[in-house]
Amino acid sequence: MKKVGILLGISSSLFLFNLSFAQQDSISNADLLKRIEKLEAEQKKTKEWDASLYGWARTEYNFDSRQSAYTREYNLNLYPLDEKMDANGKDINAASASNFLAITSRVGINFKGPDFWGAKHLEKLKPIFSEIRN
User: How many independent structural domains does the chain possess?
Assistant: First the structure.
């Protein structure tokens, strides 16, 4: 008898649970289509004003196992230096060195304004930064 009561209780609660969901899902297909068309129309609208930011930074890392001849502030490695002995007979140029450069970067902004008498207004601000002295 207990088993039957438990099964009746579970089945009645599942039935009521399904009824509550059936009442909530009573949206018609026409309503759904109207909602979808409204969302698509909002997505197709173009913005009158818009600005977007872009850019990059170039970096370089060099590791040399021997001292080298450089030019342009360590930007261009020419060749390894010859042996140069100190007073103890040790090669001074046998030392390793590393170099980290962040010498060039660009930051830009694209602007878009509203059309005026059929003309499109687009602006671009693009400075380039470089740190090499001649």
Answer: 1
Residue 12 maps to a domain: yes
b/e sequence 28-53, b meaning 16+ C-beta within 10 Å: eeeeeeeeeeeeeeeeeeeeeeeeee
> Taking Cα atoms as reference points, which of 57, 58, 59, 61 lies closest to residue 99?
61
The residue ranges of DSSP E strands in the chain, in sequence order, are 50-64, 68-71, 76-80, 97-116, 119-125, 128-130
> Considering the domain boundaries, does residue 29 fall inside one?
yes
pLDDT in tens, 78-121: 888 889 888 898 988 888 888 777 778 888 899 888 888 888 88
pTM above 0.70, yes or no: no
In this structure, is the dihedral angle defined by the CA atoms of residues 37, 41, 43 and 44, taken in order, positive or negative?
A: positive
